[in-house]
Amino acid sequence: MSAQKHIVILGAGESGVGAAILAKKEGWNVFVSDYGMIKPNFKATLEANAIELESGTHSLDRIMQADLIVKSPGIPDHVPVIVKAKEKGIKIISEIEFAGYYLKAKTIGITGSNGKTTTTMLIYHILKKAGLKVGLAGNVGQSLAKQVAEEDFDWYVLELSSFQLDDMNDFKVDIALLMNITPDHLDRYDYQMQKYVDAKFRILQNQTAADWFIYNLDDPIITAEVEKRTIMAKKAPFSLKEQVKVGAYLNEQQITININEKFTMSIHDLALKGKHNTQNSLAAGIASRILEIRKDVVRESLEDFVNVEHRLEFVAKVNGIEFINDSKATNINSTWFALESMTQPTVWIVGGVDKGNDYSELTELVKEKVKAIICLGKDNQKIIATFSGVVDTIVEANSAMEAVAYGYRLGSKDETVLLSPACASFDLFENYEDRGNQFKAAVRSL
């Protein structure tokens, strides 16, 4: 990339600030623009690096001078600044794509509607335990661009959302994982499922016969797409239903990984419980064995992994009532897995910003598992309409504190209060982490 070309970075969060640091190091003329207010720590980092910035506005004249725009994955394509830049023919990419211009390390990329964070963290855990020089980036960890600028890793484990993949064209992952595809973020894809599916399959772009594609054989959308597409990479599916020659599967309470010699392990020894977590363990196990990580390291890692915060996270037991924080469940499928793993009568806290949810998909599970529903959102009518007549008790709360108080009142000994919202959090909270943290604080104050 030519020195002294103009780069504009839209959004000054983790990814934007990281891209700015890398761009500055590589000799670009850098301008950072955030339509919102920049958080003090990010602003201080930009200023310390003598990077020009603006906050609370987009100066269109200045932005349109860019040779390249790096945009935050949270900025949709229909906002005026993006529309205008596209009309002018300015190239727009993601921070991951920009980092890729300077990346020398190899990469494992994980995407899917659900399970990608857990699988990403699990693979990172295994690689670290194996002694590899490995970084963690994408939707978790630090900005990839910042690490490319400042670190010297041999491998990166990347959690990639469809939004990030949308703005990636030349980037290639050496090992691609596709966990599952269920309706999510359809508001960003004109409510067309195929557009969302195509975004997820972008993880395969630029792969060669030397690369690997790990995918969920039990997912009907993925298997149909795999049949339709020409895939260059070596394929390694995982399944809970059928045995596979190259890949991994579950059979009679035992997982088998058929990559570089057979590896077997009882599911009772896995740290992560539940069917969806068995899939995550199978996928992570395949990736590890492709890298020829020793079996004893893989086994030990699958046994001692501690799951990510806000994902089916045990908070406390108060007078025999168990409180579980699954705030990261921002779609129906995530919440389906959470409810499916409940073994006690459950008071379910649900609601927030609806992304086109069809709550009826949960009806059978709710009938079986849920004794009461607490709606935690500004607009709960769709939830109430779906579950009236299915659950006798449905109440509404306007804060995490109020929701937890209701949960404590409606729950009994040997029952569970589960926060698994199936929705985004932006109506009442800053993000899902804020929602989960407020929930945990409220539980601990009981």
Topology:
Layout: E1 6-10, H1 14-25, E2 29-34, H2 40-48, E3 52-55, H3 60-63, E4 68-71, H4 80-87, E5 91-93, H5 95-100, E6 106-111, H6 116-129, E7 134-138, H7 144-150, E8 155-159, H8 162-166, E9 175-178, H9 193-201, E10 212-216, H10 220-228, E11 234-239, E12 247-251, E13 254-258, E14 262-266, H11 275-290, H12 295-304, E15 313-318, E16 321-325, H13 332-340, E17 346-350, H14 363-369, E18 370-376, H15 381-387, E19 393-397, H16 400-410, E20 415-419, H17 432-444
Parallel strand pairs: 1-2, 1-4, 2-3, 4-5, 6-8, 6-9, 7-8, 9-10, 10-11, 11-12, 16-20, 17-18, 17-20, 18-19
Antiparallel strand pairs: 12-13, 13-14, 15-16
How would you explain this protein's 3D organization?
With 446 residues, the protein is an alpha/beta fold. The chain folds into three domains: 6-93, NAD(P)-binding Rossmann-like Domain (Rossmann fold, 3-Layer(aba) Sandwich); 98-304, UDP-N-acetylmuramoyl-L-alanine:D-glutamate ligase; 313-444, Mur ligase, C-terminal domain (Protein-Tyrosine Phosphatase, Chain A). It is built from 17 helices and 20 strands. It has helices spanning 14-25, 40-48, 60-63, 80-87, 95-100, 116-129, 144-150, 162-166, 193-201, 220-228, 275-290, 295-304, 332-340, 363-369, 381-387, 400-410, 432-444, and strands at 6-10, 29-34, 52-55, 68-71, 91-93, 106-111, 134-138, 155-159, 175-178, 212-216, 234-239, 247-251, 254-258, 262-266, 313-318, 321-325, 346-350, 370-376, 393-397, 415-419. The strands form three sheets. The chain has a nine-stranded mixed sheet, covered by helices on one side. A six-stranded mixed sheet has the order 15-16-20-17-18-19, sandwiched between helices. The chain has a five-stranded parallel sheet with strand order 3-2-1-4-5, with helices on both faces. Helix 6 crosses helix 12 (295-304). The chain starts with 5 loop residues before the first strand and ends with a helix.
